[in-house]
Specification:
With 513 residues, the protein is an alpha/beta fold. Helix content is 32%, strand content 21%. It has two domains: 213 residues, Bira Bifunctional Protein, Domain 2 (BirA Bifunctional Protein, domain 2, 2-Layer Sandwich), CATH 3.30.930; 287 residues, Aldolase class I (TIM Barrel, Alpha-Beta Barrel). The protein has 16 helices and 21 strands. Strands 1, 2, 3, 7, 8, 9, 10 and 11 form an eight-stranded mixed β-sheet that branches. The protein has an eight-stranded mixed β-sheet with strand order 12-13-16-17-18-19-20-21. Helix 10 crosses helix 11, helix 11 runs parallel beside helix 12 and helix 12 runs parallel beside helix 14.
Length: 513
C-alpha cells in the first residue's frame, strides 16, 4: 500500500486518509490497528479510503451472490476478497468514499445497533451536504434514495473493538455492481451522488466534509468541571424509582435523559409524563421518541394519585409529549389527572408543563380552567432564530400566544417558561426572549445549559459558565421576573416546588460543585 496521504487529529479521534488503497493492504492495516486499539496502544481511529476495484464477500454466506464467474471478474481487473464482516456481497472502486472506524464501543458506552445507526446518520449528513436526501430502511443497514441504494454498511465487532465500516457512492462507476447482487438483495439498483444530482464533486472536498462529520460524532468533548455530577446514592432514589416503575408510570426524567433525576429522585420528587412516551413531533434538542402514540390511558389519573400518596407528595409537576393527534391536544387528560389526584390528595399543589396546543389553544385553555389552581408552564426552549434547527414543529409566536392566553384566562396564577443556552444563541437574542415573555405576563423563568441527550440530538455549541448564568439571573430579576432559576443544571421543573421568595438564594447549588 502506498504511504498514508495524510493524518488529521481531532481530540479523541484520529482520522487517517489512506488515499486510493489496495483493499487487502488496507484490511491488513485494520487488523494491526484493531490489535493496537485492544491493547490501548492507540486511541479511536478512522481510516478513510477510496479502493481500487474490488468485490468483497461478507460473513453472511447466503447474501454472497455473484452474477458472473470469478474468472471473468478477474479479467475486468477486479479483485475478489472474502472477509469476516457482517452482510453480503458489495463492491468498491475509486469515486466511492469508504470509512473504517476502529473504536472501543465499551469505552464509548455504545451498543452495536446504536453504533450502526450512528454510521447511517454520518452518511445521511454527508450526502445532504452534496444535495442528496437519503433515508434508513428498517432491517436493511445502509442508506437509500427512494428504491435505490446509495450506501452500504458491513461491520465486525471483536471484543468491543470495531472494524470494517461504511461505503458511500459519490461519483464511482456503478457498472461494477452488475457483477453482484448487492448485499444479497435481489433487484436492488445502486445509485450515487453523481447519478442523483448530475454533479461530480472532488473527492478531496468529500473527504474534508466527512472528516468534519466524523469529528462531530466521534470526538469526545470533555465536560467542564461544573457539569460533572456524582452518581446518585441508593435510599430515596431507589424508592422513587421502584414506586414509579411499579405503577407503570412514565417520567420526563427518564424519557428525556434529564441530568437531574438522581438529585430529584433522592429528594422523593419526579415529574410525571402523561399521555405516553411517544411524541408526534421530533425536536432535535430532545431525546423523546417520535411516532404514532397510543390512545390516552383512562387508568393513568388513578395511578398518578397512587404515586402522590406513596411518595407523600406536596407538589406535583405533570407534563406530556406533544399530542397533535388529539382534538384537544391532551388538555382533557391533564384536567382529569389533576382532578383525580386532588380528589384523593387534596393538599397537593400542581404545576403543569404543556405543549403548545398547536391547533386548539383557546379550547385547551378553557378545558384546563376546570382544574385550576396550578402553575401554568410552557417552554419557549430557545431563541426564534434557532427554531427551524432545534424545534421545527414549534412556532415562537404560537408559544408566546399560549402563555398570553393562559395569563388572561387564569389571572391569579403564575405562568412560567424556560430557555436553554449553548445552542448558538446570542446574548441579544436571549434578552429579547426574556422581554417577550414579560410582555405576555410570564413571571417565572428557568435558564439552563443545553446538554445533548442522545446521539441523534443537536450538538452543544457552547458550555455557559456558572458566572454567566448568575448574570442572566440578575438581568431576569431586573426585567421583573419574581421567580428565577438560572444555572447549568436548571430545567423547567427543577425545584419547581420552591416558593418564589426563596428563588434568589438558589443559584450556586446548581453548579454541581
Amino acid at each position: 500500500m502506498s504511504e498514508l496521504k495524510g493524518e488529521i487529529r481531532f481530540n479523541s479521534i484520529q482520522i487517517r486518509d489512506c488515499g486510493t488503497g489496495d483493499f487487502r493492504e488496507v484490511l491488513e492495516l485494520q487488523h494491526q490497528l484493531v490489535e493496537q486499539r485492544r491493547k490501548d496502544q492507540i486511541g479511536d481511529t478512522v481510516l478513510v479510503v477510496e479502493h481500487q476495484p474490488v468485490i468483497t464477500l461478507g460473513a453472511r454466506q447466503i447474501a454472497n451472490k455473484l452474477v458472473i464467474e470469478r474468472e471473468k471478474i478477474a479479467e475486468r481487473g477486479i479483485d475478489v476478497v472474502e472477509i469476516r464482516r457482517g452482510g453480503g456481497t458489495t463492491a468498491h472502486n475509486p469515486g466511492q468514499i469508504v470509512f473504517y472506524p476502529i473504536l472501543n464501543l465499551q469505552q464509548r458506552r455504545l451498543g452495536i445497533n446504536e453504533y450502526v445507526r450512528t454510521l447511517e446518520q454520518i452518511g445521511i449528513e454527508l450526502l445532504k451536504q452534496f444535495g442528496v436526501e437519503s433515508e434508513r430502511r428498517k432491517g436493511f443497514p445502509g442508506l437509500w434514495v427512494n428504491d435505490k441504494k446509495i450506501a452500504s454498511i458491513g461491520v465486525r465487532v471483536s471484543r468491543q473493538i470495531t472494524h470494517h465500516g461504511m461505503a458511500i457512492n459519490i461519483c464511482n462507476d456503478l457498472s461494477i455492481f452488475e457483477a453482484i447482487v448487492p448485499c444479497g438483495l435481489e433487484n436492488v439498483k445502486m445509485t450515487s451522488v453523481l447519478d442523483e444530482t448530475g454533479k461530480k464533486y472532488a473527492m478531496k472536498e468529500v473527504k474534508n466534509q466527512l472528516s468534519q462529520i466524523l469529528t462531530r460524532h466521534f470526538s469526545q468533548r470533555r465536560l467542564p468541571d461544573w457539569l460533572k455530577r456524582p452518581m446518585p446514592a441508593a435510599g430515596e432514589y431507589s424508592k422513587t424509582s421502584d414506586i414509579v416503575n411499579s405503577l407503570g408510570l412514565e417520567t420526563i426524567c427518564m424519557s428525556a435523559n434529564c441530568p437531574n433525576r438522581g438529585q430529584c429522585w433522592a429528594r422523593g420528587t419526579a415529574t410525571v409524563l402523561i399521555l405516553g412516551n411517544i411524541c408526534t413531533r421530533g425536536c432535535k434538542f430532545c431525546s423523546v421518541a417520535k411516532g404514532k402514540p397510543k390512545p390516552a390511558d383512562i387508568t393513568e389519573p388513578g395511578r398518578i394519585a397512587e404515586l402522590a400518596k406513596k411518595l407523600d407528595l406536596h407538589y406535583l409537576v405533570i407534563t406530556s409529549v406533544d399530542r397533535d393527534d388529539l382534538a384537544d391536544g391532551g388538555a382533557g387528560h391533564f384536567r382529569d389527572c389533576i382532578n383525580e389526584v386532588r380528589r384523593q390528595c387534596p393538599d397537593v399543589k400542581f404545576e403543569i408543563l404543556t405543549g403548545d396546543f398547536r391547533d386548539c389553544q383557546t379550547e385547551a385553555i378553557e378545558i384546563l380552567g376546570q382544574a385550576t389552581p396550578f402553575v401554568f408552564a410552557h417552554n419557549v426552549e430557545t431563541v426564534p432564530s434557532l427554531y427551524k434547527k432545534a424545534r421545527a414543529g414549534g412556532d415562537y409566536m404560537r408559544s408566546l400566544n399560549l402563555l398570553k392566553l393562559a395569563k388572561e384566562r387564569y389571572k391569579n396564577i403564575p405562568t412560567k417558561s424556560s430557555i436553554m443556552l449553548g445552542l448558538g444563541e446570542t446574548d441579544e437574542e436571549v434578552e429579547q426572549v426574556m422581554k417577550d415573555l414579560r410582555a405576555v405576563g410570564c413571571s417565572r423563568l428557568t435558564i439552563g445549559q443545553y446538554l445533548k441527550p442522545s446521539k441523534d440530538s443537536l450538538d452543544v455549541i457552547e458550555y455557559i459558565t456558572p458566572e454567566k448564568f448568575d448574570s442572566w439571573k440578575q438581568r431576569a430579576t431586573e426585567l421583573g421576573f419574581d421567580w428565577v432559576i438560572s444555572a447549568p443544571f436548571a430545567r423547567s421543573s427543577y425545584f419547581a416546588e420552591m416558593p418564589s421568595t426563596q428563588s434568589a438564594i438558589m443559584t450556586s447549588p446548581f453548579t454541581g460543585e
